[in-house]
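Batch job 17 of 40 flagged for manual review because the log was empty.
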Amino acid sequence: MQLSRFTDYTLRVLFYVSTNDDRLVTLAEIASCYDISVEHLRKVVHALSKAGHLDTYRGKKGGIKLAKPPAEINIGEIVADAEGRQPLINCGQQQCRLTGFCTLQHVLGDAQKAFMQVLEQYTLADMLNNDAMRNSLIVSKAD
């Protein structure tokens, strides 16, 4: 199983914004930090804002910040929102000679559930409980 680029960028945005929580951060600085397109980030930030995880401010002195404390942002919820909550395979979408007796969909469903249960045990605060990671993302106002 592989997470989409959108999910990857979603987590990176949250890491960056929460690490630089003493000020508003801009899309341009996040894009520069990770070498990601501003347009990709705009979609990510919009989705995070719509979900209530980020507050966004327009204008010359605008930017983004977390809408709630990192301890209240669940990683499992973030991944589920970004990836969608669809099964790994949908056997009802096409004809299959194994319909009715195949066990693959059930096994993959159990695996997906276990994967999400692990992610749901962690918050954004847990992810940032690593000094080396935090230090690599902190940008001073002079930078």
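Reviewer: the log was empty due to a logging misconfiguration, but the result itself is present. The longest strand covers residues 54-57. Unflagging and moving on to job 18.
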